[in-house]
């Protein structure tokens, strides 16, 4: 154990942590068209010149736009069934994009890179004609929850923040994944959401699968306890990490709909 820790401290931790944290996949295996969804294939550029790709999927009745920060594995094409369910039940606009190195987006992924990519996605939406910039809701799943919290702090104009299966920090996740390997202090990637959540100034909804085998349920609860009001917590009974939308089903989407309705005092709530 001591020898391994010394090896990591000697400079081998960076490639190890990248394999532990990020799982990019380049091939776009399908598009929203396979589910009969109208969409626009969008390219936009981060502040450091990296070209990024995403999908704009127009809603059918709600003024709200869901800015979707996905998790650490796959790419946007691996979330099509999830996109279809949320689009059909919530009626919202959806903008989902790939971080650098994922899908058709260029570059090499890193924590700071994901923040730059998310920042570019937000500014793209703010400049999109016909979109209400005051009704952008940040939705972060798993690793994307940390990105969403950072963006909510940087851009106080988000209408709300929804976090699905969020974790406290990369250090906390390292203790879960490698309980006998004290690498947490050596990791350069932080995603320290627990230290940031108190700075969010938007309504917060945190949802977590009851039997999440990757991010412990207790981490979602602890993040909720640290979050400022107004806030809500929803337990997806029987769900694990990657089946929340399937196990949660109608009850989960109805809970999202009720949360979003409270953000739409203009008489145009999502129909759920």
Could you explain how this protein is built, in words?
Helix 3 crosses helix 4. The protein has a single domain (2-261), classed as Alpha/Beta hydrolase fold, catalytic domain (Rossmann fold, 3-Layer(aba) Sandwich), CATH 3.40.50.1820. The relative contact order is 0.14. The chain is built from 8 helices and 10 strands. The longest helix has 20 residues, at 2-21. Mean pLDDT is 90; it is low at 1-11 and 267-272. The protein has helices at residues 2-21, 80-90, 111-126, 143-154, 170-177, 193-196, 217-226, 244-261, and strands at residues 23-24, 40-45, 51-57, 65-69, 73-74, 93-97, 136-141, 160-164, 204-209, 231-236. Strands 2-3-6-4-7-8-9-10 form an 8-stranded mixed sheet, sandwiched between helices. With 272 residues, the chain is an alpha/beta fold.
Any key phrases for this structure?
8-stranded mixed β-sheet; 36% helix; alpha/beta; Rossmann fold; 272 residues; single chain; disordered C terminus; two-stranded parallel sheet
SS class: alpha/beta
Please give the alpha-carbon distance between the first and last residues.
53 Å
CATH-wise, what's the superfamily? Alpha/Beta hydrolase fold, catalytic domain
Number of helices: 8
- How does CATH name the architecture? 3-Layer(aba) Sandwich
CATH topology grouping: Rossmann fold
Number of strands: 10
Can you give me a brief rundown of this structure?
The protein has helices at 2-21, 80-90, 111-126, 143-154, 170-177, 193-196, 217-226, 244-261, and strands at residues 23-24, 40-45, 51-57, 65-69, 73-74, 93-97, 136-141, 160-164, 204-209, 231-236.
């Amino acid at each position: 154990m001591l020898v391994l820790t010394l090896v990591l401290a000697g400079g081998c931790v960076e490639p190890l942590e990248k394999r532990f944290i990020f799982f990019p996949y380049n091939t776009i295996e399908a598009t929203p068209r396979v589910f009969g969804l109208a969409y626009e294939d969008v390219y936009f550029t981060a502040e450091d010149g990296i070209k990024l790709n995403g999908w704009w999927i127009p809603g059918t009745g709600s003024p709200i736009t869901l800015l979707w920060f996905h998790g650490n594995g796959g790419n946007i094409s691996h979330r099509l069934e999830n996109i279809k369910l949320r689009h059909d039940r919530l009626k919202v606009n959806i903008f989902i994009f790939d971080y650098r190195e994922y899908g058709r987006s260029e570059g090499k992924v890193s924590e700071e890179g994901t923040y730059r990519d998310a920042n570019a996605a937000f500014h793209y939406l703010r400049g999109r004609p016909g979109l209400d910039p005051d009704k952008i809701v940040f939705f972060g799943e798993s690793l994307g929850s940390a990105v969403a919290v950072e963006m909510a702090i940087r851009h106080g104009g988000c209408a709300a923040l929804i976090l699905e299966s969020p974790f406290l920090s990369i250090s906390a996740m390292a203790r879960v994944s490698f309980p006998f390997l004290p690498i947490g202090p050596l990791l350069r990637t932080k995603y320290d959401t627990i230290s940031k959540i108190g700075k969010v100034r938007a309504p917060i909804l945190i949802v977590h699968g009851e039997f999440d085998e990757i991010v412990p349920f207790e981490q979602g609860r602890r993040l909720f306890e640290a979050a400022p009001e107004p806030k809500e917590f929803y337990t997806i009974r029987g769900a694990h990490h990657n089946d929340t939308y399937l196990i949660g089903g109608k009850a989960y989407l109805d809970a999202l709909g009720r949360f979003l309705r409270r953000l739409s005092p203009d008489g145009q709530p999502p129909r759920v």
